[in-house]
Amino acid sequence: MDIAAAIIDLLGQRAASASICPSEVARALRPDPGDWRPLMQPVREAAAALAREDRIIITRKDERLDPDALGPGPVRLRRGPGFR
């Protein structure tokens, strides 16, 4: 499963109003302890691509973030208007 598909799959398993942490995606793709951290930047990049398509929304403290200007720090992923 690719990263974007994993994001969509995990969000699809949650309530429409729920969010996920990018680390949940990385851990789902690499369940071995300690093996998931290298996936964090690729997960953020895949999330940004999905956000540009309005399939997901990236937030920090309930504030919607520009996918092209995420910067460091914790983020959450939510379903967007084009989620599918």
UniProtKB/TrEMBL annotation:
Disordered: region residues: 65-84
SUPFAM superfamilies tied to this protein: Winged helix' DNA-binding domain
Domain of life: Bacteria
Residue stretches in coiled coil: none
Protein name: DUF3253 domain-containing protein
